[in-house]
Design a protein that fits this description.
heterotrimer, A mainly alpha, B mainly alpha, C alpha/beta, A: mainly alpha, 0% strand, C: 8-stranded mixed beta sheet
Amino acid sequence: MRRTAIGVLVVVAVLAVAGGAIAPHDPLLQNPDLALRGPSPAHPFGTDYLGRDVFSRLVAGTGATVLAAIQSVGVGLLLGVVPGLASLWLGRTVEWLLLRAADALMTLPFIVFAVAVTGILGNGLTQAMLAIGALFAPLFFRVTRAAGLRLTRAQYVEAAELFGASRTRILRTHVWGKVLPTVAVTAAQATGGALLAVSSLTFLGIGVKPPAPTWGGVLASDLGFLAQQPWAPVIPAALIMVTVAALNALADHTTSKERVDAGLAR
Amino acid sequence: MTLLLERRAARTRRLAPTLATPVVVFVLASLLTFGLGALSPSNPAAAVLGETATPADIARMNHEFGLDRPFLVRYADWLGDALTGDLGRSYFTTIPVSDSIFAALPVDLTLAGLAVVLAVLLGGAAGIGAALRPGSRFDRVVTFVASGLGTLPPFVIGIGLIVVFSVLLGALPAGGYVPLEAGFVPWLRFAILPALALSLDIAASIARQLRTSLVGQLGENYVTGAVVRGLGPRRVLFRHALRNAVGPALTVLGVGVPMVLGGAVVTEKIFNLPGVARLALQAADQHDVPLIQGTLLVTITVVLVCNTLVNLALLRLTPQGGRQ
Amino acid sequence: MPVLRVDDLDVSVAGRGAAVRDVSFTVHKGESVGLVGESGSGKTLTCRAVLGVLPPGVAVTAGTIELDGAPLTGLDRRGWDRVRGNRLAAVFQDPASYLNPSLTVGRQLAEQLRLKRGLPRRQTRAAAVELLAAMGIRRAERVVDQYPHELSGGMLQRTLIAIAVAGEPDLLVADEATTALDAAVQAEVLELLRRLREERGLALLLVSHDLAVVAEVCDRVVVFYAGEIVEQGPTAEVIANPRHPYTEALLRVASLGDWRRRSLEVIPGRPPELGALPAGCRFAERCAHATDACASPVALTTLDGDRQVRCHRAADLALVGAR
């Protein structure tokens, strides 16, 4: 299970990096004579309504899709972990405000918020990922806080405080080393969610505008032609699902392994 | 009788945070909504006056719009107006934003309502059925389907439903909308597929949560106690075990409301529905800041109202404050 | 006719054999019978079989259980639901866990009064208060609106008893009903059970690991060891003059009679595991009086009239009763 998951992710990573170089056709090349064809040796996933090669569009679209997901998780990490740690040490008022801010962000529906942000700040990948990232922040905020809280109550941190270790030192040596693994697992899980959000947004034409290829974009162009090609959405959908499932499986595996390790250590 | 008074007082004490938190959250979220508008690179004065405007014209217009006042003052003004139902006018059509939104909102509310009903019915039935016979074939199917649905993006479910029910079976329309006033059955024909697309994900979560907690509750002594008292299986399940098992599933429902509304954007696009989300997409396309802010604020309000309702329900179900 | 008649009952754990074997006893109207033994002796499984709530994988595999002459074994759920709460009721150890935590005790009592005694809804509250008061609960009109987690163990057990007798049953099964309570409360609850018996003609089947509790309330005692009855008879006779070495040992560890003067004793050794039951006397391994003869199977034999014992040496042993 874990091997399969890693295998899937490696393939996706290669596609993301190599992208357009591997694609057999130009993902933007239109060929009206070949519109809406089924799979053939030249076009293994068929062609879309403009006669573009679907396989090439998916391969070339991997980069933007994956990059966007990683970016948004990165933004979420930054906006979540730092306030998460800050909330533990900067006193009650800051803590209360940050907690309510996290509540506020959590009530925002991902896509509505991303639509609003890109509508106001401009329709670009950076704006969209900022929006998605901001909504991931409460997740990282909570996880960081929870892990940190457990630690500040742990005896060795108390002992370090008694011995006069400075706060930054405690933060660096003790807390960081323990909080990091939890955050890493959460990040893996969040990447799966981010990939779904990115796909939804590109499906709507937000973040990456057509005709630039993305996974969601391929799905969107299939939508108008379901009567002619009802099977067409299966391919991009399967690509998205398999990648998300691989990320989830990896995160689950790491979580359960961590639990086993913790159990053995005790 | 004093006990009832005490209990009422205790309930009020517990009620306070349930009702106060959403207010605070609303203030923060509305601040964010307004702040976004302030960050907008497109200047309404410039937009209204067009390309030929001089900086002096723009400054005069800014003053007229009140845009030269401090941020918090403008926010307070905006929020005050918003609370009285005035969300400003569209930059482009000059139609009041609230009019546009309230014309579109019934589409989403009826759809989301149907989605929640479907999620509760499907998730509830699957979860209860699985919990009554843990390890059975039904249980395994529910677990498998529920975890599979979790990895499906909502738009994939929507497209799949269209392919099956519209394209292949030809039983239901692939898109479009008829308002509820035109009759329940015509409305349902158009609403059922989008609502199903919105609900399946939450139904799966409800089924999983309900199964886990109900299996736990059914193993509790008080269930044996109720059986020994000679209460029938249905009464034991619905009046006793379910009452204590439903909490996590209700929480899922509370968390699920933003997801429904978020998914609604995509679902509206797939099924070509004239809802708030389509309004938001249009507004985003045109950088129509008041309309964007309006849709966001209304969405946030709906989410908060739903969350508060779920929390109130949870409060009613669990009499003992500290237990959960 | 006895209220409860258990005949040659076997209760088996799937794949592991009989955990209760050849158990027969009767409870007559208004009579109080105690089942005693260590944990795992089969007394609780026996009473769960009587109530029809055996754990999953455990089932009655032989014998019959009759309530008022009608068989309970083989009843379907509907049949059980007509018997339980109406003619048969039970209270357990840890009463808090046997009440629904999110309903007031009044609502749970009212439910019972409505469904099992057929009271109309608007009368149930008053009847619930009255019944709680009859169980010796002070300020019953307050307690009726309280949740289980707001009540003490003794109050909860009284509430549970109230719910049990709400349907005016003929037989009340009390499974370690006083075990978790402190001594004073335990005495009060036992007193309540005794009173219910006298006032309502309620037959009692009391399950306890403590012979002292049984001695306090029961007319007859049935001693379980490793899934079998090893001795039964009138409580006073069994206590004064035990005929099975295990009963003697139980008497020694029970807080009976002049127990303050004795050192705290335990019975050495452990009962045999279900998978490794000896062919002969199951107590032989721990018995101070065991001989080679004890390796052969031993039947439950009837002694002078009303007593039964399962011991090869019952005739020649002089055992010590409670002083």
